[in-house]
Amino acid sequence: MERDKDIHAALVPFVGFGHLIPFYELSIALAKAGIHVSFISTRNYIQRLPQLPPHLSSLITFVPLSWSTVGSNLLPEGIEATVDIPDGNGEHLMAAFDLLKHPFKQFVIEQSPDWIISDCISYWTVDVAKECHIPLVIFSAFSAATHVFFGPPEYLSGNGQRRLRSSPEDLTSPPWWVSFRSLVHHRRYEAIGAIGIYTANASGISFAERIARTLDGCRAVAIRGCRELEGEYFDLFGKFMGNKRVIPTGVLLPEKPNKTPIAAAHNGEWSKIFEWLDEQKPKSVVFVGFGSECKLSRDQVYEIASGLESSELPFLWALRKPSWASNDLDTMSPDFGRRTSGRGKVCIGWAPQIEILAHPSIGGSLFHGGWGSAIETLQFGHCMVVLPLIFDQPLNARLLVEKGLAIEVERGEDGSFCGNNIALCLRKAMAWKEGDEMRTRVEKAAAIFNDQKLHHQYVDEFVEFLKNGKGEDGSFCGNNIALCLRKAMAWKEGAEMRTRVEKAAAIFKDQKLHHQYVDEFVEFLKNGK
Fold first, then answer.
1. Which residues pair with 288 in a beta bridge?
2. 92 has pLDDT over 50
3. What's the CATH architecture for 262-449?
4. What is the model's pLDDT at position 99?
5. Among 319, 375, 343, which residue's Cα sits nearest to residue 142?
6. Which of 65, 298, 303, 528 has the fewest CB atoms within 10 Å, i.e. is most exposed?
7. Which keywords annotate this record (predicted)?
8. Cβ pair 338, 311 in contact under 8 A
9. Residue 218: its pLDDT value, please?
10. Three-class SS of residue 455?
11. For 321-370, how does the pLDDT look when each residue is reduced to its tens digit (9 = 90+)?
């Protein structure tokens, strides 16, 4: 690949917001570095993306593929994303998504991009890449810790999976290949559902098999994250992947919003809510949000409400309208609003999460542990109380607890939780002295996440990889030199090497030892042997 050639990358995210937004942020980062990006998804999904920065519009092209003609036999008209699907139709959405392989292949044949950058769920991009002779990179929106928990590709399917992950109990402790301290595992009530990733669904292939095929068929894996938070997990996953590069992209933060346009950008209700936030004390308000994918039951909503009320802390709760609620008023108990009037706000539907988290009155977050939300929350240095519900959220939640950045709500053996435990965790995180150390660690993490120079270096390393074709010509780049120097001289992961070097130096300076070696040689010469 010519180093001075304009690079064109075709990005293919899965149709879930937890995947779409990281791919969008990656597109922005690549375009800033001069990479031409084709962002490929369904028309409905593309319309939900934030507006592109005007100065990057010439470098990013949205490529809508027709979903209605491809997936109409599997899903109702207009269903194009995980957030839209009725309960029980997730497998059919995945099956419909897989049928995009054919229009995607046609795009690749016509446009001949230099790289395909695919989600780890889009296993069919492996075949397209091979058939069209285009190198494939997997960009994962999962944490490095999540990938480590599920292990090398050979443990995700076939005999390896059957031998190591055949029952829910196999998911309830950190796996044997993790030699360092780790809290990343499932509780049993979570494992009962999580074991299903190894079973083929309506798409004809299991979730785990998808990941195994993409990891086997790619040239490199890029992961949204940084070594400063997950260094040991990146190192171990790199060992899993052998000679394939594992590249942290940095956390790919969205641009921080300016305060001025908030009222103009949103409807009247949100303008009033931001006015209410302006009246609160700095770092005093808990933001509560469980994302667009989690579907809370009536009991869960009521227990969360009970916890917020009992905590006696100011709160702002962005709640997706539950399917069981006939209207917005039916979502809460009738007296909840009256009892928390003035102290809390509940907003049903979409919420401008970044603008909320950026507000100076927000001090903590009660959320599900989704990786994207965790990154956004840490960006602003907020305390975190985690209540994981689905997918990879439990693994992320335990990673945050392991790093001392979050408190997890205690649950029953069946996964149920109560308002009192939520209130207790919120008070610990936001008000009590025992939360002081966590708040200090969160501030340090925020400083790392906001270190633009650091995260530009991560992006530059990935861009350099794309530009030099993974160094097949023997070329090297300054960013890789800088990375190695920092590993060797400054980063924690170089501590063991520095210790070994000191031991080696002690051996080299042992004059008695080396005199013995010389004496042995001299004795040989004297004896004439």
1. 317, 366
2. yes
3. 3-Layer(aba) Sandwich (3.40)
4. 86
5. 375
6. 528
7. Flavonoid biosynthesis, Transferase
8. no
9. 97
10. helix
11. 887 777 767 788 878 988 998 899 999 888 999 999 999 999 999 999 99
Helix axes 436-449, 227-240, angle to 10 degrees: 70
Give the predicted TM-score (pTM) of the model: 0.85
Sorted by sequence, the CB contacts under 8 Å of residue 263 that are 6+ apart come out as 270, 271, 274
Tokens representing residue 468 in the block: 């030099």
User: Which tokens in the block code for residue 493?
Assistant: 């992961």
> Under 8 Å CB-to-CB from 44, ≥6 apart: which residues?
67, 78, 80, 81
Q: Please give the full DSSP string across 385-410, using - where no structure is assigned.
A: EE---STTHHHHHHHHHHTTSEEEPP
CA distance 276 to 288: 16
Higher pLDDT, 269 or 351: 351
Q: Do domains 8-254 and 262-449 have the same CATH topology?
A: yes
Q: Is the pLDDT higher at 95 or at 189?
A: 189
DSSP state for residue 491 in the 8-state scheme: S
In this structure, the strands spanning 136-140 and 344-348 are unpaired
Per-residue model confidence (pLDDT) at position 292: 75
3-state secondary structure 51-65: CCCHHHCCCEEEEEE
In angstroms, the first-to-last Cα distance of the chain is: 58
d(CA 285, CA 302): 20
Beta pairing, strands 285-289 & 362-367 = parallel
Best CA proximity match to 406, nearest among 362, 358, 364, 355: 364
Instruction: Report the chain's mean pLDDT, rounded to a whole number.
Output: 89
- pLDDT single digits (tens) 185-222: 999 999 999 999 999 988 899 999 999 999 999 999 99
- Per the CB < 8 A criterion, the answer to whether 425 and 388 are in contact is no
CA distance 370 to 358: 18
Q: How many other CB atoms sit within 10 Å of the CB of residue 389?
A: 20
**pLDDT grade, residue 411 (50/70/90)?**
very high
Helices then strands (H, E): number in the chain? 24, 13
Distances (CA, A) of 43 to 13, 68, 69, 271: 13, 10, 12, 30
* Cα Rg, the chain, nearest whole Å: 26
| SS3 letters across 134-171 | CCEEEEECCCHHHHHHHCCHHHCCHHHHHHHCCCHHHH
pLDDT tens string 440-452: 999 999 999 999 9
What pLDDT is attached to residue 72?
52
Going by their DSSP bridges, the two strands 245-248 and 36-42 should be labelled as: unpaired
Q: Where are the domains of the chain?
A: 8-254, 262-449, 491-527
- What is residue 396's predicted lDDT score, i.e. its pLDDT? 98
> Angle at CA 223, nearest 5°, toward 88 and 54?
90
**Which two three-digit tokens encode residue 33?**
């570095």
Comparing CA positions, the residue from 128, 22, 7 lying closest to residue 65 is 128
